[in-house]
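INTERNAL AUDIT FORM
Audit reference: QA-55
Scope: verify that the stored structure record matches its stored sequence.
Auditor: D.O.
Record contents follow.
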Amino acid sequence: MFQRKLGGMIAIAAIVAAACGPSGSASTAPTTGPATGTPATGAPPSTAPATQAAIGEGEGALKLVIWAGYAERGDADPAYDWVTPFEKATGCKVTTQDMTDSNNGVSLIQSGEYDGISASGDATTRLIEGDLVAPIDTSMLPNYANVFPALKDLPHNTVDGVNYGVPHGRGPNLLGYNKDVITTAPTSWDPIWEGGSAYKGKISIYDSSIFIADAALHLMTTKPDLGIKDPYQLTQAQFDEAIKLLQALDANEPTYWGLAANQQASFTAGDVVVGTTWQYQVNLLAADKQPIEAVLPEEGSTGWSDTWMMAKGAAHPNCMLKWMDHMMSAEANAQATIWFGEAPTSQQACDAAEAIAPGHCAQMHATDEAYFGKVHYWATPQADCKDDDAATTCVAQDDWVNAWTTLRGS
């Protein structure tokens, strides 16, 4: 269960900025195809970080695209504020724009108005291949050395040994349920799929094309003959089966949510009793004394391993680099991952989390790689199936979005 420390806030150590290095200059973001579609280029244009030797003075501002809850300044709970100390230490005034899903996040970065983004794996590949984000020299960021090795150099944010960001946190998509209605904790995703008719009109589903992967994941268990190995890389036949499963789900009249606050309101009002959720909503609902709990079903889950990425041509690159380092600091990462309900990125962050919410890292399985072995991190669907088998093709991102739009009738 999520635990809040209502009194006081641990102090966040100030980031010591390096004295040298000029600030970068702004440039217009490159033109690409639609935000939801295929990147303009098939590979990143650079093979090594073209960065300055050290972080220079902050430019006074920082504009971020974020998942809701990734940049708290104590408005919801004064005990959770990792933005204000950053602003005081760096002089970088932070403004944010929440995204509804990764498609929306990519579109916002394409606008050229933002310095960086907290990107999930179904956005990172598009951002890199679309030449929308800058390579990062992690040696400039002191806190990177403390990051768990399992979170470094991952395929969704690293190309040919070049890093395009730093980790924020990771977690699974969970099955949330009202325990006053569903009195026995579910052990599978059945209440959404085959068992969904029992909760007709009361099911809550994430409104994004990436949810097609959740259907594919379920088919990996229920229809192994389909041969699905990766829920994000589907042949046409596999994809068609996932769409059939989603059409059957749609017959049970689910409520689709894009913003976490909307799902929270639906659970609170009793309009929904079961659905795919994040620990973030569960934490807030529990704090409001709502009878909501969540489980990781036995067949595993989709999930995320998020990356802070800097927009190419960012107007405030030094502030963005300082933010990246700040978000890997023990204090900031502890607060952020407790608040959202995800696993911290370092043992130092786990130690700091213990002072705020004892048992947090154990609850979030921060060092349990076997647990995260059951979590399929969001990834971008690709026509080449993201493998070396030229004889097999998969349904790409554009077609996922088009299919979801058709399914949703919008």
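Auditor finding: record pair retrieved intact. The longest helix spans residues 236-250.
Action required: none
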